[in-house]
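Narrative of activities, Objective 1.

The group set out to show that a structural description can be obtained from nothing but a protein's sequence at a throughput compatible with the screening campaign. Below is one input-output pair from the validation batch, recorded exactly as produced.
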Amino acid sequence: MNELPDSELITRVLAGETACYRPLVVRYQNRLHGMVMGMVRNQEDARDIVQMAFVKAYQSLATFRIDSSFYTWIYRIAMNLAIDHCRKGKRRKTSSFEEAVGSRDEDGNLSAQHHEESPGVALARKQLHDRIYAALDEVSEDMREAILLREVEGLSYKEIADRMGIPEGTVMSRLFYARKKLQSLLKSADSAE
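Output recorded for this entry:
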């Protein structure tokens, strides 16, 4: 069942085979968690949001267009929940290193190289991680989402536009201004040290 395409699994769920929803959850939960973690920066909140996204998607599955991408749809649900969470001010800041940042394969698993670092490299990475996420906190949610999709997920401008539901030109603009703002914030942090 895990090898079946998303559309087949969804069709079976809609036909009453509710167990067919589990492979969709297994297939996408790690990728979603990484993206949501980039927005909320708290493991428990990210897990809760991803779980809520899958519940919400399940409850609305009858409205899903089978010819569309399930991942794009569930991603949008999860990101909307994450943005709502951030706007409500429930986000807690953290300074610990989060494993959600690192090289990931297409299934969302951390690469082996990620786990083979020396303590000095790990410390430098943690410090850079903290500085980058502190800077990301200073940009708008739309800019943050675009940066995470491009730099963490590695999506093309077109894929980002599809996920965010905006034109490619807007994606390029958001990325340009987000990078410019992040560079400025990181330079300010360097001069303050």
